[in-house]
Amino acid sequence: MLDFFASHRVLAQQECLSCCLGIRMTVHYNLFCGTILALGSEEQRNWLQDAQSAGLLGCFMLTETGAGVLSGLIVETVATWVWLDDEGRGGFELHSPTQSAEKTWISQGLVADYGLVVAQLVINQRSMGAHVFLVDMQSPGISRECMGEKTNFNALDNARVSFDRVQLPASALLSKLCNVQPRWSGDNWHADYIHTGKRPPTFIQTGQRLLSGRMCISDSAITYMEGVLAVTKKYAEGRFVWVDKERKMPLADLPYMAKGLESVEVGLAVHKAFLSLVQSDFAKAIETDSELSRSLVTLIAAAKVEAVDFAIKSLALLRRDVGSFGLMAASPFGSSDILLCCRFAEGDSRVLQQMVTRDLIRAHSKFSAIFRLIWRVLQAWLSGALHGSAKLRYLRDQRLLQLLWILAKQQWKNRRQGLSKAQSDSDAWLQAGELVYDVAKTHAQQLIHSTVEGRCGPSVETVRFMDMCISD
After folding, report:
1. 2-198 CATH choice from 2.40.110.10, 3.40.50.1110, 3.40.190.10, 3.40.50.300
2. Domain 206-471 carries which CATH code?
3. Domain boundaries, the chain
4. Angstrom distance (rounded) from CA 60 to CA 23
């Protein structure tokens, strides 16, 4: 697993590839093959070996037109269990019931031989939640069309895919964790939903390889930024500028430039250390076939959001400070679309931030938890000087307490106006505005700092990183 992450770093260093090959690789080997290895039965994993030997390409179909960045939270595509005969043989009918249910932005979707599609499993008119199905992309009823020309990355095909009552065999459902089992009772056949664990598979299990994809994206952004820094630093050290009528000095030695270069170096060092730790934890969980903890999922979200955001800001900072060099073809500031792609791929950063904040709110849903939060804030305020991660914890707790107060006040106001609980909650969430993202950002920064400092020990970089986060 760690070799897989390393391979993405190698590709991120090859600017000429424009990241398209890296996307194809993570789609096929991570999302397609990795999901079959994680969720497939022994027979399905054996099929994968044969498919690899035959050179067949795969794609992964999750994102839908109606869901957009809320992919995974909203899945309209349905796979309905249907009986094929009176002998107890059945299969699935895969269907896009509306235009909004069409799969969209499917990388490698036009050329893939097979695909994995995430759809609602429906048995006896009851949805069992999102599950993954293996489909032959040449099956009757599957329509594929190009998304159209993009501003960049046209070496990668992106498809819009829809399903018109596509007939799938029972073996299409990835069945390591669950299956549909025919049962004869009375005078009829019945379909039973069987899961191997204590509960049906969660979306974290279903979309497990989206998490490894997020780490690949974070790694690529940081590796890309390392290349930008190296070229920028070399230029700044060799570019001499006048400081008065008699003296010149390297651009890199000017205070503002030196500060900018140092901040990027510090951020890169801390983010690289954090990604290495999180990737190791993820690899251990995969190798031991363990269910991923919610805390690890949060760490991965923090890595995805903060590493990409750091790279975007650092690129803008360095480009601003090198002057006209930033316009030259020899500079590393040509197309930064790769970072924009990193921001919304495998989970839009804003959506991941909302997930992190909602988890924090759920953890403080009881009065006892809120009281402890108030007590922590009060203690930190009374103690005065705070050190290390305590500073970031205090800032996060302050913002979280403020958010909880705004949500409670707005929910109370909405309920008095006669809104339903669901309407009241969503309206209060919208009214909270940027504070939702501020809480998530501070929490992510605190997790990054405390993880690196706690497991690698305090360093000059972690102290400087904390100061950068507080002043951000």
Report:
1. 2.40.110.10
2. 1.20.140.10
3. 2-198, 206-471
4. 12
How far apart are the two ends of the chain, measured CA to CA in Å?
A: 34
The SS3 assignment for 226 reads helix
Amino acid at 351: V
Among 5-14, 87-96, 117-126, 209-218, the least confident range: 5-14
pLDDT value at position 69?
55
CB 40, CB 48: distance < 8 Å: yes
Query: For residue 139, how many other CB atoms are within 10 A of its CB?
Result: 15
Lowest average pLDDT, out of 2-16, 84-98, 132-146, goes to: 2-16
Q: Are β-strands 178-185 and 188-195 bridged in parallel, bridged antiparallel, or unpaired?
A: antiparallel
What tens digit of pLDDT does each residue of 266-293 get?
999 999 999 999 999 999 998 888 888 9
Q: In the beta sheet, which residues pair with residue 117? A: 61, 133
292 HSE (CA, 13 A, CB side): 27
DSSP 269-304: HHHHHHHHHHHHHHHHHHHTTPPPPHHHHHHHHHHH
Cα–Cα distance, 377 to 21 (Å, whole number): 48
Helix (H) or strand (E) holding 343: helix 337-344
- Tally Cβ neighbours within 10 Å of residue 431: 16
Q: What percentage of residues in the chain have a pLDDT greater than 90? A: 65
Per-residue DSSP letter, 202: P
What is d(CA 439, CA 45) in angstroms, rounded to the nearest whole number?
42
